Amino acid sequence: MLLLYGSVAVTLARRLLTMEEGDRLDPIGQLAAEFKTGRGTVQAALKLLIDEGALEVDALGKRGSFIKKLNREKLLQLGDLTSIIGVMPVALSTIHYGLSTGLHYAFEQTDIPLVLAQLRGAKNRLHFLRTGRCDFAIISRMSWLQEADKGDLLLLFGFGPGSNVANHALLMPRKHDNGIVDGMRVGVDPTSHDHFLMALKECEGKSVQFIEISYGESIPQLLSGNIDVSICSESIANLPSELKIVPLQYQEVHSDTNTEAVLVVRNDSKWIEDLIQNRIDPTFIATIQNNVVNGKEKPVF
Fold first, then answer.
1. Which string of b and e fits 118-153 if b means at least 16 CB within 10 Å?
2. What is the pTM of this model?
3. What is the architecture, at CATH level 2, of domain 168-253?
4. CATH topology of domain 84-164+258-293
5. How far is CA 61 from CA 30, 31, 65, 158, in A?
6. Domain locations along the chain
7. Is the dihedral of CA 170, 176, 177, 180 positive or negative?
8. What is the CATH number of domain 2-78?
């Protein structure tokens, strides 16, 4: 039955997911112009959603039609959706534990199922987003600044300073002096804008060897002696006693651009953009994140 009205019913169902009971529906003529179809097709698609129990409408004459009741489970089904898929950094600190928890709770309030995957490297997460394998990605603001000019992505909002990492620092064995010196083997994750750019800045003017690693493998690579130093978050969890955290020499890299997490979507996914902007509160997510970081709330993955 849904195939009879094609993409109009699907698009309309997705549009309604961004709305609340009591909201006024756009006029049929306006929707027909937007969807580039006839008024009859829009009316038939709307009737289908009503008949399927996804929507109840109050028609108030010249005042227009208003949403009386929404069944979001039905709208997800009719909108050809099973869940919203997001990707975020691999959780290696309480900051990321908290961000994951805040995202889960925020989507839970909307009655829209969330599948939240963890993937190392902003470049990898953005590749998933660009190829349609997820609906949104969490990256640092520094990564966003490297990608924004490409024009195919849209930043919806940030979560505030310290929402991605507390600050970055050097991670190295205790046997070494503090700081990077000539001859060191520096572990670098090329899939991370932050990791790569800050490593280059910290090693500027020094004769070092860059070793390609995964950010999540920094600790085992250091303990096995394969590298001498790497960039990490100051808030890294469960640090082995053989290793130490050393402040970065170039303090100007401690900026909001690399400590803030932001949420980005494809700029051709209007319904995802509307859904997240209208239904998800970044302040609520940041509050839950802080509660987890401060031990007031248990993390959720």
1. bbbbbbebbbbbeeeebbbbbbbbbbbebbeeeeeb
2. 0.76
3. 3-Layer(aba) Sandwich (3.40)
4. D-Maltodextrin-Binding Protein; domain 2 (3.40.190)
5. 16, 18, 7, 41
6. 2-78, 84-164+258-293, 168-253
7. negative
8. 1.10.10.10
Place of tokens 């509050």: 287
The pairing of beta strand 136-140 with beta strand 84-88: parallel
Q: Per-residue b/e over 229-260, b at no fewer than 16 CB within 10 Å?
A: bbbbbbbbeeeeeebbbbebeeeebbeebbbb
Cβ-based neighbours of 111, under 8 Å, separated by 6 or more: 72, 73
Domains 2-78 and 84-164+258-293 agree in fold: no
φ and ψ of 216, to 5 deg: -70, -15
pLDDT per residue as tens, the chain (301 positions): 444 466 888 889 888 888 889 999 999 999 889 888 889 899 999 998 999 999 999 988 888 899 999 988 888 888 887 789 999 998 888 999 999 999 999 999 887 889 999 998 999 999 999 999 999 999 999 899 999 999 999 999 999 998 988 778 899 999 888 889 999 999 999 888 888 888 888 899 999 999 999 888 899 999 999 999 999 887 777 889 999 999 888 755 446 677 899 999 999 988 899 889 988 999 999 999 999 999 999 998 7
Q: Which residues pair with 188 in a beta bridge?
A: 212
